[in-house]
Specification:
Elements lengths: L5 E5 L20 E2 L2 E2 H11 L4 E6 L4 H6 L4 H9 L3 H8 L8 E5 L6 H6 L2 H4 L4 E4 L3 E4 L4 H8 L4 E7 L9 E9 L2 E9 L10 E9 L3 H6 L11 H8 L5 E5 L3 E4 L3 H13 L5 H12 L1
Parallel strand pairs: 1-4, 1-6, 4-5, 8-12
Antiparallel strand pairs: 2-3, 6-11, 7-13, 8-11, 9-10, 10-12
Bound molecules: uridine 5'-triphosphate.
Uridine 5'-triphosphate binds next to helix 5.
């Protein structure tokens, strides 16, 4: 089996739930504590051994590209003032030349379409897909857990959600479970609670077979009039197995305002340099 070397980051969404913040700034550049959301996703991929980082961007997303480049004027000024620590924060983590690629999704036709836009950059090998606005706090990065467990087929990180929330997720129709791995016999995108085949839901982490691209090419619009990745993975079941992977960790939905706020608190509490102060602040609010 080929090694998972490439990761696709679909970042072309409009981020309408964060307007007006996302009028001029991509949602993925909003900070969680002091790092943009997209930076966490990059670090997670790196920790999983990913070598090629492929961003599917859209209009008004140039700031993402700039983030992964030098900022010479700023670096020059920081160097002149001998602000060594700050200088390091602008450049010491930069990916090696040629390991980051950007392609554009000209129209927001859905997540499935965004992934399809990366087909020439991915080629004929299994690849990871990371939705940066789903953040996972875990001892072992989520994608690393998945790469280590991957045994071919299509795979997504999964977690149980309350039944009244199934309408926000892709849901598994479970065939059988084996420890953390769940084999699905079907997938349903955003079902009403009474129609959901289970409460096991897909979060924004996948490892996919390259065969998904030819399926996406012919994929009809689904829920919300968008080309859905879930529909494509679902239609492959029978020919290609689909596995849900029950990851260790806690997921934060930074695509929603409440989830974003929660992530800021959780990630700050996870940091030794902030934990104490944040506890104090929280106490002022909750007594
Ligand atoms: P979301 O459902 O969160 O949509 O997309 P969104 O447009 O980003 O945000 P709202 O709902 O308008 O607030 C899930 C992921 O799929 C990407 C998004 O960038 C996000 O990472 N996506 C979605 C695309 O890249 N292209 C699309 O056409 C749709």
């Amino acid at each position: 089996m080929k090694k998972v070397r490439k990761a696709v980051f679909p970042v072309a969404g409009l981020g309408t739930r964060f307007l007006p913040a996302t009028k001029a700034i991509p949602k993925e550049m909003l900070p969680v504590v002091d790092k943009p959301i997209v930076h966490y996703a990059f670090e997670e991929a790196l920790a999983a051994g990913i070598e090629q980082f492929i961003f599917v961007t859209g209009r008004n997303k140039n700031a993402i590209e700039d983030h992964f480049d030098h900022a010479y004027e700023l670096q020059h000024k920081l160097s002149g003032k001998e602000k060594i620590k700050e200088l390091a924060l602008t450049r010491d983590w930069l990916p090696s030349a040629g390991s980051v690629s950007f392609t554009r999704q000209q129209d927001s036709l859905g997540l499935g379409h965004a992934v399809w836009c990366a087909r020439h950059l991915v080629g004929d090998e299994p690849f990871a897909v990371i939705l940066p606005d789903d953040m996972v706090l875990a001892d072992q990065p989520c994608v690393k857990q998945m790469v280590e467990a991957y045994k071919g087929g299509n795979m997504a990180a999964v977690m149980d959600v309350p039944r009244d929330k199934t309408k926000s997720y892709g849901i598994l129709d479970i065939a059988h479970s084996d420890g953390k791995m769940v084999t699905a016999k079907g997938l349903v995108e955003k079902p009403e609670p009474e129609k959901a085949p289970s409460t096991l839901s897909i979060i924004g982490r996948y490892i996919l077979e390259p065969g998904i691209f030819s399926v996406l090419e012919n994929q009809k619009k689904g829920n919300g009039g968008e080309i859905q990745l879930t529909d494509a993975m679902s239609s492959m079941i029978g020919k290609v197995p689909f596995y849900g992977y029950r990851f260790d960790g806690k997921r934060y939905d930074c695509g929603s305002r409440e989830g974003y706020l929660e992530a800021n608190i959780a990630f700050a509490l996870d940091r030794d340099d902030m934990k104490k102060d944040v506890h104090k602040i929280l106490k002022q609010f909750v007594g």
